[in-house]
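Structure Section — protein described below
Tokens — whole-number codes for backbone shape
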Amino acid sequence: MADPFTDRLTPRARDIVSAARALLEEEGPEALTMRRLGDRLGIRAPSLYKHFPDKAAVESELIALSLWETAEVLEAAEAADPGSVPALAEAYRRHALAHPHLYRLTTERPLPRAALPPGLEYRAAAPLLRACCGDEDLARAVWAFAHGMVVLQLNGRFPDGADLTKAWETGAAAFQPATADR
């Protein structure tokens, strides 16, 4: 699948999404407004509406970019250690923690499926589904574990000194199918 960021957008729209991502990553979701985005680009906010109908459309492109990056990260982990739920969980964790605001934008509200490139959501989930031997329920349970761990870590909910690496390893190993090609 081609990069949705490059293939779906005009060069100016890509610039807008890049600036939106930088603003989001640097200052969080509260900073992501059309006015602030226009200021960052050196244009008036109304000019943004020539490229995106509203802020939600910009956010949808950020979510598409996030899913595409997640797919890339998980595919690389799968290539390095085929069938390994722990390897996928660790790659997911590292990527989510490296981009906490983008991660939250992508996961804390309903997914704008109609605005996403066809097949992108499946591509992001496919490495985990393969590691779970095609068991969709198991794959969803693993994703729920990984997502919950990320959110708890981002929100500082673990006590000081908690061995989160061990918790991740233990949880991911518990989900590793016995029939996986390991």
